[in-house]
Amino acid sequence: MSSNRAVVVDPDAPGRLVIRDAGDPTPDRNAAIVRVRAISLNRGEVRRSQMAAAGWRPGWDLAGVVERAAADDSGPREGTRVVGVLLDGAWAERVAVPTQALAELPDKVTFSQAATFPVAGLTALHALAKGGLLVGKRVLVTGATGGVGDFAVQLARLAGAHVTASARRADQVATLRQLGAHDVVVGEEIPATPKYDLIVDSVGGKTLGTGLAALQRAGVCVTLGASASADVTFSARDFYVAGRVTLYGLYLFTEFVHEPASVGLRRLAELVASGQLAPHISVERPWTEVAQVAQDLLARRFPGKAVLSVD
């Protein structure tokens, strides 16, 4: 058997992440073996890697080529360029991926572009879907310079919404307007007006607490992260005065129960191929630098996405 290297947790190593032999993947009948060409990092898996036990294999996002098709004849054929998502262990040279979590890549989409959108892009897609038809509606995206926020601003604009982006700093305003935001609010707190039909929040803390008071009647707030703080204080009076509103906690992998990841991945790939959606990659490095890039991500040293090439 050939060797198969993967990123694993080593508590004694700088940054706690190292590349080691992990053994060959053993696929179920409905899973293909994918030779990975690019991966991207998300805050969730990186945070977990800082606490996980020795030997744990992180990684959600991957793009590569099918080396062996699934035994049950489902999914892409051998040699097909694909994008995929795993619950863990995606950061490896070769991985077994269920075909319902794989989508074929159009020729125009690079492996680096594809690696950015499994978790960030799908999270944005599912969060926006909670707002229903978005044409003419007001949508607020917090943490808009992050991976999910970047996709959410673009996708909400594509859906016909009036998009407001929330940023931590004033120097991020121009970038967010270029991304497609009609308006930008700066700071931790969300003004009580205007009111929004949908809020996509990945920040938590004061941002989520004040954002709840800015919902329209029958508005929806989707919370999907807490990059600022997991503890949220909000005005109960402002919340109930707003009338019937919804606070929805979104965990991406449970959304796949209702719609396979392959469906959303295909939609995102087609939007990228047509030039309607542009993944923003701030960092591209070889995967041998995973420990340093992970630390830079946690320290917020770059916006957008970090992509690592696997070779």
Describe the structure.
With 311 residues, the protein is of the alpha/beta class. The protein folds into two domains: 5-119 and 260-309, Medium-chain alcohol dehydrogenases, catalytic domain (Quinone Oxidoreductase, Chain A, domain 1, Alpha-Beta Complex), CATH 3.90.180.10; 131-249, NAD(P)-binding Rossmann-like Domain (Rossmann fold), CATH 3.40.50. The protein contains ten helices and 15 strands. It has helices at 43-49, 111-116, 119-129, 147-158, 173-179, 205-211, 236-241, 252-255, 261-273, 290-298, and strands at 5-9, 17-21, 31-40, 61-68, 81-85, 94-98, 102-104, 138-141, 162-167, 183-186, 196-201, 215-223, 246-249, 281-286, 305-309. Strands 3, 4, 5, 6, 7, 14 and 15 form a seven-stranded mixed beta sheet that branches. A six-stranded parallel beta sheet has the order 10-9-8-11-12-13, with helices on both faces. A two-stranded antiparallel sheet has the order 1-2. α3 (119-129) packs across α4 (147-158). It is globular and about 60 Å long. It starts with a strand and ends with a strand.
Short key terms for the protein model shown above:
311 residues, alpha/beta, Quinone Oxidoreductase, Chain A, domain 1, Rossmann fold, 2 domains, seven-stranded mixed β-sheet, six-stranded parallel β-sheet, 27% strand, globular
